[in-house]
Design brief:
Elements (H helix, E strand, L loop, with lengths): L10 H14 L4 E5 L3 H6 L5 E7 L23 H14 L2 E2 L5 E2 L5 E3 L7 H11 L12
Parallel strand pairs: 1-2, 2-5
Antiparallel strand pairs: 3-4
Helix pairs in contact: 3-4
């Protein structure tokens, strides 16, 4: 279950969502975009909430994703993704689209499979993190 397409701008819907899931499926792990409101609410929940960051997507300085329709929103160059992984390891931060450093602390990393370089990106990730594994495509 990946609620990253829902914008959690208020805490009430997020609390209600986590409450509903914890009552119906307390065994689920919730994946949420790193730094979003739902990830912060997850810290007070009995559920496991993991933050996810996207290696092949550009971020704004405020930590949100650049909309896909904007220039530079989707990273297609595997070497840029490799640099991002190294920056994350060395600095604990990611470069935003306007070249500022932003703090993301993801538990999981995602590479979308809809770019021509997705396999190359995952191959480079595997060289840096030999224990990394790829899950199959998400079912949304």
């Amino acid at each position: 279950m990946v609620p990253s397409t829902i914008k959690w701008t208020r805490t009430t819907p997020g609390r209600a969502y986590l409450g509903l899931i914890s009552r119906r499926r307390p065994d689920l792990t919730i994946l949420t975009r790193s730094g979003c409101g739902l990830s912060a609410l997850g810290e007070t929940s009995t559920l496991i909430v993991q933050q996810e960051a996207f290696l092949d997507r550009a971020y704004r300085t405020i930590g949100t994703l650049v909309p896909r329709g904007k220039p530079g929103a989707v990273l297609q160059n595997p070497s840029l993704v490799l640099d991002r992984i190294r920056d994350s390891q060395d600095r604990g931060a990611w470069r935003s689209i306007d070249d500022c450093w932003i703090s993301l602390d993801p538990d999981t990393l995602c590479v979308h499979g809809d770019t021509s370089q997705a396999v190359a990106m995952l191959t480079q990730l595997r060289t840096l993190h030999p224990r990394a594994h790829a899950d199959g495509p998400s079912r949304r």
